[in-house]
Write a structure and sequence with these properties.
Elements: H1 2-7, H2 23-42, H3 54-65, H4 68-71, H5 95-101, H6 116-122, E1 125-128, H7 134-150, E2 156-162, H8 176-188, E3 193-202, H9 204-210, E4 217-219, E5 224-227, H10 240-265, H11 269-275, E6 280-282, H12 284-290, E7 295-296, H13 301-307, H14 311-318
Parallel strand pairs: 1-2, 2-3, 3-4, 3-5, 4-7
Antiparallel strand pairs: 5-6
Helix pairs in contact: 7-8, 8-9, 10-11
């Protein structure tokens, strides 16, 4: 009963003259008030809700379990209504806040991207695409040493497209020792080195192509290989004795190149020396015959070779009987 009376506004007094006449009505009003309060405390009718809306679902749960939380609420203008029901409400930032929080350089990389040789090095690929000058030799030797240090068992793939120590017009751009430096580094490695000629392999570059692991030396169908004698650098205004010294050094480098090519191609020193008297060009087929490479690479050859009948099957179809070995 006290709860019902507190719910009614009691700021006025009832005159005594009309107390008796309205006693019955006041008693009926108090009874109705108590019954309404009991129904409100028992259950509040709720409209149909969207079950996928987390806010409305939470609001309906609070209304069903503790309706006094919704009926007796302080008025606050600092927060939206009913948002304090959640333990830690999260509000979305306004567009102005998002615009102020994002800077122009936020999504830029913190460091520059790696260059192409670094990306190829990650795949254990070393590419020689320039004449063998000191800067190129330094890079190639460093990459070979680094790849052996990272993994001494995995193979190294050496792609060659170089004119050696000369340019296309025959002008000398590097010493013969540049090619020998890369060759010696290759011989010191524990890894297998798969060499592939793309474009051209001339002079010292042809030696690097032939120096790959036996059975792992390849050449593209339209590549060219060429061996030639080392050339004396431009003498200029030097004395005659110095010219003779340079000529003797060129002959020494030629003999070394002949011996190394003979070693890796399987030919005799005399054969290699004879063909090197003049520039000796070789396409992929001739390079394979000369022993510079082991296989010519072209798309689809694996499928075609897999469909070729082996020699024993040819003999059987031809009616040739193989004698039983004893």
């Amino acid at each position: 009963m006290a709860t019902c009376l507190r719910a009614l506004p009691m700021n006025y007094s009832i005159p005594s003259s009309i107390h008796n006449s309205h006693s019955v009505k006041n008693r009926n009003l108090r009874i109705n008030c108590c019954s309404i309060g009991a129904r409100n405390s028992a259950k509040i009718p709720m409209p149909p809700l969207n079950p996928k809306d987390p806010f409305l679902s939470r609001l309906a749960s609070v209304a069903a379990n503790s309706p006094e939380t919704l009926l007796e609420r302080p008025v606050s203008s600092e927060s939206p209504p009913y948002l304090d029901i959640f333990d830690s409400p999260q509000l979305m930032a306004t567009p102005a806040q998002v615009e102020r929080s994002v800077s122009y350089n936020e999504h830029r990389p913190k460091k520059p991207p790696p260059d192409l040789p670094s990306l190829l090095l990650h795949g254990r690929i070393v590419y020689i695409g320039m004449p063998l000058v000191p800067a190129v030799t330094e890079l190639i030797v460093a990459e070979l040493m680094y790849l052996q240090w990272t993994d001494p068992k995995e193979p190294i793939y050496l792609y060659i497209n170089s004119t050696g120590t000369t340019r296309d017009d025959g002008e000398t751009v590097g010493m013969e020792t540049e090619g020998f430096a890369i060759y010696d580094s290759m011989m010191q490695l524990k890894n297998e080195i798969h060499t592939v000629a793309v474009g051209a392999a001339i002079g010292q570059a042809c030696l690097l192509l032939a120096a790959g692991t036996p059975g792992k030396r390849f050449m593209m169908p339209h590549s060219k290989a060429m061996i030639q004698q080392p050339k004396v650098p431009s003498s200029g205004l030097i004395s005659a004795s110095d010219v003779l010294i340079r000529a003797q050094e060129a002959v020494t480098n030629r003999n070394t190149l002949v011996e190394l090519l003979a070693k890796h191609t399987g030919n005799s020193v005399e054969t290699v020396a004879n063909v090197m008297k003049r520039p000796y060009y070789m396409d992929a087929t001739r390079a394979k015959e000369f022993g510079v490479i082991d296989k010519v690479l072209w798309r689809g050859q694996e499928k075609i070779m897999s469909e070729v009948i082996p020699p024993e099957e040819w003999d059987r179809l031809a009616g040739i009987k193989i004698p039983d070995p004893f």
